[in-house]
Amino acid sequence: MSKQTKNTKVFYNTEIPSDWKILDMKAICSKITDGTHDTPTPVESGIPFLTALHVKEELIDFENCYYLPEEIHKEIFRRCNPQRDDVLMVNIGAGVATSALVNVDFEFSLKNVALLKPNNEKVLGSYLNYYQVFIKPKLTQTLLNGGAQPFLSLKQIQKLKVNVPPIPEQKTIAQVLSTADAAIHTTDKLIAQKELRKKWLMQQLLTGKKRLKGFGGEWKEKKLIDLFDRVTRKNTEGNTTVVTISAQRGFVRQTDFFNKNIASEITENYFLVERGEFCYNKSYSNGYPWGATKRLNDFDKAVVTTLYICFGVKDEKKTNPEFFEQYFGANHLDKGLTKIAHEGGRAHGLLNVTPSDFFSLKVTVPSIEEQTAIAQVLQAADKEIGLLKAKAEKLREQKKGLMQVLLTGKVRLKINNT
Asked: What is the location of CATH 3.90.220.20 in the chain?
Protein backbone atom coordinates (compact mmCIF):
# COMPACT_ATOMS: atom_id res chain seq x y z
CA MET A 1 0.00 0.00 0.00
CA SER A 2 1.05 3.59 -0.48
CA LYS A 3 -0.32 6.93 0.67
CA GLN A 4 -2.26 8.99 -1.89
CA THR A 5 -0.74 12.47 -1.90
CA LYS A 6 -3.12 14.36 -4.17
CA ASN A 7 -6.83 14.17 -3.40
CA THR A 8 -8.83 16.89 -5.11
CA LYS A 9 -12.42 15.74 -5.59
CA VAL A 10 -14.84 15.91 -2.70
CA PHE A 11 -17.45 13.18 -2.30
CA TYR A 12 -19.70 12.83 0.78
CA ASN A 13 -17.38 15.31 2.52
CA THR A 14 -14.43 13.05 1.72
CA GLU A 15 -11.66 13.89 -0.72
CA ILE A 16 -10.96 11.26 -3.37
CA PRO A 17 -8.08 10.92 -5.87
CA SER A 18 -8.10 13.18 -8.92
CA ASP A 19 -7.94 10.20 -11.30
CA TRP A 20 -11.14 8.68 -9.87
CA LYS A 21 -14.55 9.53 -11.30
CA ILE A 22 -17.81 10.35 -9.54
CA LEU A 23 -20.59 8.71 -11.55
CA ASP A 24 -24.23 7.97 -10.85
CA MET A 25 -25.52 4.42 -10.83
CA LYS A 26 -27.35 4.87 -14.14
CA ALA A 27 -24.05 5.69 -15.88
CA ILE A 28 -22.21 2.59 -14.62
CA CYS A 29 -24.99 -0.01 -14.87
CA SER A 30 -26.37 -1.41 -18.10
CA LYS A 31 -29.64 -2.22 -16.34
CA ILE A 32 -31.35 -1.35 -13.05
CA THR A 33 -34.63 -3.10 -12.38
CA ASP A 34 -36.53 -4.92 -9.68
CA GLY A 35 -38.68 -7.98 -9.24
CA THR A 36 -42.25 -8.22 -8.12
CA HIS A 37 -43.88 -6.35 -5.25
CA ASP A 38 -46.65 -8.93 -5.15
CA THR A 39 -46.52 -11.95 -2.88
CA PRO A 40 -46.70 -15.14 -4.95
CA THR A 41 -47.59 -18.30 -3.07
CA PRO A 42 -44.29 -20.14 -2.44
CA VAL A 43 -43.96 -23.88 -2.97
CA GLU A 44 -41.61 -26.49 -1.46
CA SER A 45 -39.40 -26.78 -4.54
CA GLY A 46 -38.91 -25.04 -7.86
CA ILE A 47 -37.16 -21.77 -8.76
CA PRO A 48 -35.47 -19.96 -5.83
CA PHE A 49 -37.49 -16.89 -4.83
CA LEU A 50 -35.52 -14.27 -2.89
CA THR A 51 -37.15 -11.55 -0.80
CA ALA A 52 -35.56 -8.75 1.20
CA LEU A 53 -35.17 -11.27 4.05
CA HIS A 54 -32.73 -13.34 2.01
CA VAL A 55 -30.32 -10.59 0.96
CA LYS A 56 -27.92 -10.38 3.88
CA GLU A 57 -24.92 -8.11 4.31
CA GLU A 58 -22.72 -9.09 1.36
CA LEU A 59 -24.25 -12.56 0.90
CA ILE A 60 -27.40 -14.24 -0.39
CA ASP A 61 -29.24 -16.74 1.78
CA PHE A 62 -30.21 -19.38 -0.76
CA GLU A 63 -30.44 -22.07 1.94
CA ASN A 64 -33.55 -20.56 3.52
CA CYS A 65 -35.20 -18.97 0.49
CA TYR A 66 -38.68 -19.66 -0.88
CA TYR A 67 -39.52 -21.32 -4.20
CA LEU A 68 -41.85 -20.51 -7.08
CA PRO A 69 -43.38 -22.67 -9.82
CA GLU A 70 -41.67 -22.33 -13.20
CA GLU A 71 -44.60 -20.52 -14.87
CA ILE A 72 -44.81 -17.81 -12.18
CA HIS A 73 -41.03 -17.42 -12.10
CA LYS A 74 -40.88 -16.68 -15.83
CA GLU A 75 -43.08 -13.58 -15.40
CA ILE A 76 -40.59 -12.13 -12.89
CA PHE A 77 -37.42 -13.51 -14.45
CA ARG A 78 -38.01 -11.76 -17.80
CA ARG A 79 -37.79 -8.45 -15.96
CA CYS A 80 -34.77 -9.31 -13.83
CA ASN A 81 -32.52 -11.79 -15.64
CA PRO A 82 -29.90 -11.97 -12.84
CA GLN A 83 -26.42 -13.25 -13.68
CA ARG A 84 -23.16 -13.88 -11.86
CA ASP A 85 -21.45 -10.65 -10.68
CA ASP A 86 -24.68 -8.64 -10.68
CA VAL A 87 -25.49 -6.78 -7.46
CA LEU A 88 -28.73 -7.12 -5.51
CA MET A 89 -29.96 -4.26 -3.33
CA VAL A 90 -32.91 -4.37 -0.95
CA ASN A 91 -35.11 -1.41 -1.82
CA ILE A 92 -38.10 -1.93 0.48
CA GLY A 93 -38.31 -2.78 4.17
CA ALA A 94 -36.13 -2.75 7.27
CA GLY A 95 -33.04 -4.00 5.40
CA VAL A 96 -33.23 -1.28 2.75
CA ALA A 97 -29.90 -0.53 1.00
CA THR A 98 -28.44 -3.90 2.05
CA SER A 99 -26.54 -5.33 -0.92
CA ALA A 100 -25.04 -8.66 -2.00
CA LEU A 101 -23.07 -9.92 -4.99
CA VAL A 102 -24.62 -12.63 -7.17
CA ASN A 103 -22.12 -15.51 -7.20
CA VAL A 104 -24.24 -18.27 -8.73
CA ASP A 105 -25.09 -19.30 -12.29
CA PHE A 106 -28.71 -20.44 -11.91
CA GLU A 107 -31.95 -18.47 -12.29
CA PHE A 108 -33.90 -17.00 -9.38
CA SER A 109 -36.74 -14.53 -8.81
CA LEU A 110 -36.88 -11.42 -6.65
CA LYS A 111 -39.32 -9.53 -4.46
CA ASN A 112 -38.63 -6.07 -2.95
CA VAL A 113 -35.04 -6.34 -4.21
CA ALA A 114 -33.47 -4.28 -7.01
CA LEU A 115 -31.08 -5.81 -9.53
CA LEU A 116 -28.04 -3.81 -10.65
CA LYS A 117 -26.22 -5.07 -13.75
CA PRO A 118 -22.80 -3.36 -13.83
CA ASN A 119 -21.27 -2.24 -17.11
CA ASN A 120 -17.97 -4.11 -16.77
CA GLU A 121 -16.12 -1.52 -18.81
CA LYS A 122 -16.89 1.06 -16.13
CA VAL A 123 -17.37 -0.84 -12.87
CA LEU A 124 -16.93 -4.39 -11.58
CA GLY A 125 -19.76 -5.99 -9.67
CA SER A 126 -17.38 -7.05 -6.89
CA TYR A 127 -16.17 -3.47 -6.40
CA LEU A 128 -19.69 -2.00 -6.66
CA ASN A 129 -21.00 -4.37 -4.00
CA TYR A 130 -18.24 -3.50 -1.53
CA TYR A 131 -18.82 0.17 -2.25
CA GLN A 132 -22.55 -0.17 -1.55
CA VAL A 133 -21.82 -1.92 1.76
CA PHE A 134 -19.49 0.94 2.66
CA ILE A 135 -21.90 3.71 1.68
CA LYS A 136 -25.06 2.11 3.14
CA PRO A 137 -25.08 4.12 6.42
CA LYS A 138 -24.99 7.37 4.43
CA LEU A 139 -27.77 6.16 2.13
CA THR A 140 -30.08 5.30 4.98
CA GLN A 141 -29.55 8.76 6.46
CA THR A 142 -29.96 10.90 3.36
CA LEU A 143 -31.87 9.18 0.55
CA LEU A 144 -34.73 7.16 1.99
CA ASN A 145 -38.33 8.25 1.78
CA GLY A 146 -40.08 8.90 5.08
CA GLY A 147 -42.88 6.77 6.43
CA ALA A 148 -43.32 3.47 8.17
CA GLN A 149 -41.94 1.42 5.25
CA PRO A 150 -38.37 2.43 4.30
CA PHE A 151 -38.12 2.65 0.52
CA LEU A 152 -35.62 3.34 -2.28
CA SER A 153 -37.24 3.87 -5.68
CA LEU A 154 -35.50 2.79 -8.87
CA LYS A 155 -35.14 6.47 -9.79
CA GLN A 156 -33.37 7.12 -6.51
CA ILE A 157 -31.08 4.16 -7.09
CA GLN A 158 -30.25 5.41 -10.59
CA LYS A 159 -29.16 8.76 -9.12
CA LEU A 160 -26.92 7.29 -6.41
CA LYS A 161 -23.35 8.51 -6.76
CA VAL A 162 -20.37 6.15 -6.80
CA ASN A 163 -16.70 7.08 -6.67
CA VAL A 164 -15.14 4.96 -9.40
CA PRO A 165 -11.40 4.18 -9.64
CA PRO A 166 -9.85 2.69 -12.80
CA ILE A 167 -10.87 -0.94 -13.44
CA PRO A 168 -7.45 -2.45 -12.47
CA GLU A 169 -7.62 -0.64 -9.13
CA GLN A 170 -11.22 -1.75 -8.59
CA LYS A 171 -10.12 -5.33 -9.13
CA THR A 172 -7.25 -5.05 -6.66
CA ILE A 173 -9.43 -3.38 -4.01
CA ALA A 174 -12.06 -6.11 -4.38
CA GLN A 175 -9.39 -8.81 -4.05
CA VAL A 176 -8.06 -7.33 -0.80
CA LEU A 177 -11.54 -7.00 0.70
CA SER A 178 -12.44 -10.49 -0.51
CA THR A 179 -9.42 -11.84 1.38
CA ALA A 180 -10.65 -10.05 4.50
CA ASP A 181 -14.11 -11.57 3.96
CA ALA A 182 -12.61 -15.06 3.63
CA ALA A 183 -10.90 -14.69 7.01
CA ILE A 184 -14.17 -13.55 8.60
CA HIS A 185 -16.21 -16.36 7.01
CA THR A 186 -13.63 -18.98 8.08
CA THR A 187 -13.79 -17.73 11.67
CA ASP A 188 -17.60 -17.61 11.63
CA LYS A 189 -17.70 -21.18 10.35
CA LEU A 190 -15.37 -22.30 13.13
CA ILE A 191 -17.56 -20.52 15.69
CA ALA A 192 -20.63 -22.38 14.38
CA GLN A 193 -18.76 -25.70 14.65
CA LYS A 194 -17.64 -24.96 18.21
CA GLU A 195 -21.16 -23.91 19.20
CA LEU A 196 -22.57 -27.17 17.83
CA ARG A 197 -19.94 -29.11 19.79
CA LYS A 198 -20.79 -27.16 22.95
CA LYS A 199 -24.49 -27.90 22.43
CA TRP A 200 -23.71 -31.61 22.08
CA LEU A 201 -21.58 -31.55 25.24
CA MET A 202 -24.40 -29.89 27.16
CA GLN A 203 -26.89 -32.48 25.96
CA GLN A 204 -24.59 -35.31 26.99
CA LEU A 205 -22.89 -34.08 30.17
CA LEU A 206 -25.78 -32.25 31.84
CA THR A 207 -28.05 -35.28 31.56
CA GLY A 208 -25.55 -37.98 32.50
CA LYS A 209 -25.70 -39.62 29.06
CA LYS A 210 -21.94 -39.18 28.90
CA ARG A 211 -19.80 -39.31 32.03
CA LEU A 212 -16.43 -37.71 32.50
CA LYS A 213 -13.50 -39.97 33.30
CA GLY A 214 -13.35 -40.90 36.98
CA PHE A 215 -17.05 -40.43 37.74
CA GLY A 216 -19.57 -43.21 38.02
CA GLY A 217 -21.81 -42.52 41.00
CA GLU A 218 -25.58 -42.40 40.73
CA TRP A 219 -27.24 -39.04 40.10
CA LYS A 220 -29.94 -37.98 42.58
CA GLU A 221 -33.30 -36.34 42.04
CA LYS A 222 -33.81 -33.08 43.91
CA LYS A 223 -36.37 -30.29 43.99
CA LEU A 224 -35.12 -26.79 43.28
CA ILE A 225 -36.19 -25.79 46.80
CA ASP A 226 -33.69 -28.35 48.13
CA LEU A 227 -30.84 -26.60 46.31
CA PHE A 228 -31.82 -22.92 46.19
CA ASP A 229 -33.25 -20.20 48.43
CA ARG A 230 -35.66 -17.69 46.99
CA VAL A 231 -34.34 -14.10 46.91
CA THR A 232 -36.92 -11.43 47.78
CA ARG A 233 -34.73 -8.67 49.21
CA LYS A 234 -36.07 -5.24 48.32
CA ASN A 235 -34.03 -2.39 46.89
CA THR A 236 -33.99 -0.36 50.08
CA GLU A 237 -30.47 0.92 49.35
CA GLY A 238 -31.64 2.82 46.26
CA ASN A 239 -29.55 0.92 43.70
CA THR A 240 -30.06 2.43 40.22
CA THR A 241 -28.75 -0.50 38.11
CA VAL A 242 -32.16 -1.52 36.75
CA VAL A 243 -31.79 -4.52 34.44
CA THR A 244 -33.94 -6.77 32.33
CA ILE A 245 -33.30 -10.38 31.30
CA SER A 246 -32.72 -10.93 27.60
CA ALA A 247 -32.96 -14.58 26.59
CA GLN A 248 -30.03 -14.09 24.19
CA ARG A 249 -27.89 -11.56 26.10
CA GLY A 250 -28.57 -12.26 29.77
CA PHE A 251 -28.82 -9.34 32.20
CA VAL A 252 -28.90 -6.03 30.31
CA ARG A 253 -29.44 -2.52 31.61
CA GLN A 254 -32.95 -1.39 30.71
CA THR A 255 -31.56 1.79 29.20
CA ASP A 256 -29.46 -0.33 26.81
CA PHE A 257 -32.14 -2.90 26.01
CA PHE A 258 -35.12 -0.57 25.51
CA ASN A 259 -33.17 2.67 24.80
CA LYS A 260 -35.01 4.10 27.77
CA ASN A 261 -35.74 3.33 31.41
CA ILE A 262 -39.18 1.73 31.65
CA ALA A 263 -39.00 1.11 35.40
CA SER A 264 -40.73 3.34 37.90
CA GLU A 265 -38.57 6.16 39.28
CA ILE A 266 -39.20 4.63 42.70
CA THR A 267 -37.59 1.17 42.73
CA GLU A 268 -37.47 0.38 46.44
CA ASN A 269 -40.11 -2.33 45.96
CA TYR A 270 -38.11 -4.02 43.18
CA PHE A 271 -35.94 -7.02 43.95
CA LEU A 272 -32.22 -6.45 44.55
CA VAL A 273 -30.12 -9.38 43.32
CA GLU A 274 -26.41 -9.89 43.91
CA ARG A 275 -23.62 -11.26 41.73
CA GLY A 276 -23.93 -15.04 41.30
CA GLU A 277 -27.67 -15.22 41.96
CA PHE A 278 -30.25 -16.35 39.39
CA CYS A 279 -33.47 -14.90 37.99
CA TYR A 280 -36.18 -16.63 35.99
CA ASN A 281 -37.93 -14.43 33.41
CA LYS A 282 -41.41 -15.83 32.80
CA SER A 283 -41.76 -14.20 29.37
CA TYR A 284 -41.24 -16.55 26.45
CA SER A 285 -39.08 -15.46 23.52
CA ASN A 286 -37.38 -16.89 20.43
CA GLY A 287 -35.55 -20.07 21.43
CA TYR A 288 -36.91 -19.88 24.99
CA PRO A 289 -40.60 -20.86 24.78
CA TRP A 290 -40.82 -21.44 28.53
CA GLY A 291 -38.85 -18.43 29.68
CA ALA A 292 -35.17 -17.99 30.49
CA THR A 293 -33.16 -18.38 33.67
CA LYS A 294 -29.94 -16.36 33.85
CA ARG A 295 -27.17 -15.81 36.39
CA LEU A 296 -26.02 -12.30 37.32
CA ASN A 297 -22.34 -12.11 36.34
CA ASP A 298 -21.75 -8.59 35.02
CA PHE A 299 -22.87 -6.49 38.00
CA ASP A 300 -22.17 -6.68 41.72
CA LYS A 301 -25.81 -5.84 42.37
CA ALA A 302 -28.79 -5.16 40.13
CA VAL A 303 -32.47 -4.26 40.42
CA VAL A 304 -35.15 -6.38 38.71
CA THR A 305 -38.92 -6.44 38.48
CA THR A 306 -40.80 -8.50 41.05
CA LEU A 307 -42.30 -10.45 38.14
CA TYR A 308 -39.01 -12.38 38.04
CA ILE A 309 -38.41 -15.37 40.32
CA CYS A 310 -35.00 -14.81 41.92
CA PHE A 311 -32.92 -17.33 43.85
CA GLY A 312 -29.44 -18.29 45.00
CA VAL A 313 -27.60 -21.49 45.91
CA LYS A 314 -28.18 -22.68 49.49
CA ASP A 315 -24.77 -24.28 49.97
CA GLU A 316 -21.97 -24.02 47.40
CA LYS A 317 -20.25 -27.00 49.09
CA LYS A 318 -23.11 -29.14 47.80
CA THR A 319 -24.38 -27.26 44.74
CA ASN A 320 -22.16 -25.70 42.09
CA PRO A 321 -23.74 -22.51 40.65
CA GLU A 322 -21.57 -22.72 37.50
CA PHE A 323 -23.05 -26.17 36.80
CA PHE A 324 -26.59 -24.82 37.11
CA GLU A 325 -25.77 -21.78 35.00
CA GLN A 326 -25.02 -24.23 32.18
CA TYR A 327 -28.01 -26.43 33.11
CA PHE A 328 -30.49 -23.54 32.95
CA GLY A 329 -28.83 -22.20 29.78
CA ALA A 330 -29.51 -25.54 28.08
CA ASN A 331 -33.25 -25.12 28.84
CA HIS A 332 -33.30 -28.32 30.90
CA LEU A 333 -36.09 -26.88 33.05
CA ASP A 334 -38.44 -26.72 30.07
CA LYS A 335 -39.83 -30.23 30.51
CA GLY A 336 -40.99 -29.39 34.02
CA LEU A 337 -42.13 -25.89 33.10
CA THR A 338 -44.46 -27.24 30.42
CA LYS A 339 -46.43 -28.97 33.19
CA ILE A 340 -46.86 -25.91 35.42
CA ALA A 341 -46.79 -22.91 33.05
CA HIS A 342 -49.90 -21.35 31.58
CA GLU A 343 -50.12 -18.14 29.57
CA GLY A 344 -51.31 -15.35 31.83
CA GLY A 345 -53.42 -12.35 31.01
CA ARG A 346 -51.26 -9.71 32.68
CA ALA A 347 -48.93 -9.12 29.70
CA HIS A 348 -48.19 -10.44 26.25
CA GLY A 349 -46.27 -13.68 26.45
CA LEU A 350 -46.10 -13.77 30.24
CA LEU A 351 -46.30 -17.30 31.62
CA ASN A 352 -48.22 -17.93 34.81
CA VAL A 353 -45.58 -19.70 36.92
CA THR A 354 -45.89 -19.30 40.67
CA PRO A 355 -42.81 -19.38 42.91
CA SER A 356 -44.12 -22.44 44.75
CA ASP A 357 -44.62 -24.35 41.49
CA PHE A 358 -41.21 -23.21 40.22
CA PHE A 359 -39.32 -24.40 43.29
CA SER A 360 -41.18 -27.71 43.22
CA LEU A 361 -39.55 -28.56 39.87
CA LYS A 362 -37.31 -31.62 40.01
CA VAL A 363 -33.79 -31.94 38.65
CA THR A 364 -31.42 -34.90 38.61
CA VAL A 365 -27.88 -33.93 39.62
CA PRO A 366 -24.51 -35.60 40.21
CA SER A 367 -22.16 -35.13 43.15
CA ILE A 368 -20.65 -31.69 43.74
CA GLU A 369 -17.33 -33.00 42.39
CA GLU A 370 -18.88 -34.10 39.11
CA GLN A 371 -20.92 -30.89 38.88
CA THR A 372 -17.68 -28.92 39.16
CA ALA A 373 -15.89 -31.03 36.56
CA ILE A 374 -18.78 -30.70 34.09
CA ALA A 375 -18.93 -26.94 34.63
CA GLN A 376 -15.20 -26.63 33.94
CA VAL A 377 -15.50 -28.50 30.63
CA LEU A 378 -18.41 -26.35 29.46
CA GLN A 379 -16.79 -23.12 30.65
CA ALA A 380 -13.66 -24.03 28.68
CA ALA A 381 -15.86 -24.45 25.59
CA ASP A 382 -17.46 -21.06 26.28
CA LYS A 383 -14.04 -19.43 26.58
CA GLU A 384 -12.93 -20.92 23.26
CA ILE A 385 -16.07 -19.63 21.55
CA GLY A 386 -15.66 -16.23 23.18
CA LEU A 387 -12.10 -15.89 21.90
CA LEU A 388 -13.20 -16.80 18.38
CA LYS A 389 -16.04 -14.27 18.52
CA ALA A 390 -13.60 -11.59 19.67
CA LYS A 391 -11.33 -12.53 16.75
CA ALA A 392 -14.24 -12.30 14.29
CA GLU A 393 -15.21 -8.89 15.65
CA LYS A 394 -11.61 -7.68 15.33
CA LEU A 395 -11.49 -8.93 11.73
CA ARG A 396 -14.71 -7.05 10.96
CA GLU A 397 -13.29 -3.88 12.45
CA GLN A 398 -10.13 -4.32 10.39
CA LYS A 399 -12.23 -4.76 7.27
CA LYS A 400 -14.15 -1.57 8.06
CA GLY A 401 -10.85 0.24 8.34
CA LEU A 402 -9.71 -1.16 4.99
CA MET A 403 -12.95 -0.09 3.33
CA GLN A 404 -12.61 3.39 4.77
CA VAL A 405 -9.17 3.97 3.24
CA LEU A 406 -9.41 1.88 0.06
CA LEU A 407 -12.86 2.92 -1.15
CA THR A 408 -12.06 6.60 -0.69
CA GLY A 409 -8.56 6.43 -2.17
CA LYS A 410 -6.86 7.59 1.03
CA VAL A 411 -4.55 4.60 0.55
CA ARG A 412 -3.69 3.34 -2.94
CA LEU A 413 -2.77 -0.25 -3.69
CA LYS A 414 -0.13 -1.60 -5.97
CA ILE A 415 -2.15 -2.62 -9.01
CA ASN A 416 -2.40 -6.32 -9.74
CA ASN A 417 -2.67 -6.61 -13.54
CA THR A 418 -3.17 -10.39 -13.56
From this structure: 23-164, 220-365
